[in-house]
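Quick one: examine this chain and its backbone structure tokens and tell me how the chain folds. Here goes:
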Amino acid sequence: MQIVIYLMIYGASILMAINIYMYLLFSEHIRKRGNWNSEHRILMIPIVLLVMFLAGYLAIAIWGHPDLIMAAILLGGSIFVLVMLILIRGATDRIQENEHLEAELLAAEEASKAKTFFLSNMSHDIRTPLNAIIGYTTLAKREGLTAEEQAQYIDKIENAGRQLLDIVNDVLEMSRIESGKIHLEPVPMNLENCIRDAGDLVRNQLTMKNIDFTVSCRIEHKWVLCDKNLLNRALMNLLCNAGKFTGEGGRIILSVEELSADAQTGRYDICVIDNGIGMSQDFVTQIFTPFERERTSTVSGIEGTGLGMAITKSIIDLMEGEIQVNTEKGKGTEFIIHASFPLVEARDEKKEKGLIRRFDGKRVLLVEDNPVNTEIAAMLLSQAGFEVKTAENGRMAVDRIASSENGYYDLVLMDIQMPVMNGYEAAKAIRALDNPDLASLPVIAMTANAFREDEEKAAEAGMQGHIAKPLDPDAMMETIYRVLGQDQRSS
């Protein structure tokens, strides 16, 4: 009987030692799952008590004279503590799992609310320019209008179309940023000219609102290595934002200041300052969150998707810069971009101006399945001097080129998304023709697939250029001129 009693005591001691070890693991586990620094001393109390129990067990086992009842109590207590630790561990895991699920649910609900608000804004913002396009088109078709009145309506239709395009571009740009598809492509550029060019793009719009707009450049090292397109996009977002929220008679300042420079790097502050309606301090913390717009009666009447500032912040982050916001309700807003750019040697900036590209006598094969797009592109090409032939899909284009005489076509403009054979497949088929002269025919993609990766796909398919839709006539002719590699112009 005495042997059984001592076996029970020793078993209780071993169980208590296991309990101490399990509690140590448990306390470490909950510390990793949450911030328990303030409860550290409380978590230590059970360890101290368990160690004291273990010391008492061992003392009884070595020096005491336990009886059967005491041994049973000790063993039962140890088993009870073990069971309780297991239950508490499971309950704690379930509580923390529920908290995690609640946090995810709350985040999903917030995201859903933001997207619902975004879709509501989008419905309004898309319908506004569409209403203008449809309305002014109806007015422009009325009989008895003067040429000047028709021209005014056409200008308004064009402005509404560009506004609609900006909305679509913002949504697509944000999607690309979130998926990590935007990368820097730095080129040597004149930073001062970039700032002034951005100002020139919005000057007329601001002048129409009677806004005093000034551009200030205080820099010594002008030539830097930077992604000009992305920087210009960020500046345009800030300037357009300032223009939206600054009333008539207001003031906007665009400035760049060189803070310091060494042999390799220049550090600059680029500022956009306005004295418009400003923002509340609560909204400043959310201004760079996608789809967010301040909910006030004034802001609600102004077009916008709530993506411009999020895109700007992502661009500046990509450039490893910082953007700072200083604002006060009713007094205006100041955005400051803190950026560093590698310095490069100055380049020759002489450019030919006032020249119109001409391609008289040249034949182009326009491959496009959409009749409206075909009509618009053919008209632009004809005005530039081209003789235009058309094909409705890639298969038809390849057949016409393969059956043509050497040198008949000077250029192919190729849509990408077409039935029967798409543009990539058609370009590869042209490059695979047995006749080397036909296989080397210049091919330019002309497509609504307008992202950088689309340009890369076009190049991989054997195309020498990329023209994005909607068509920009000047950019279109410059791309064609570059690909054809000849100077046929008139001033």
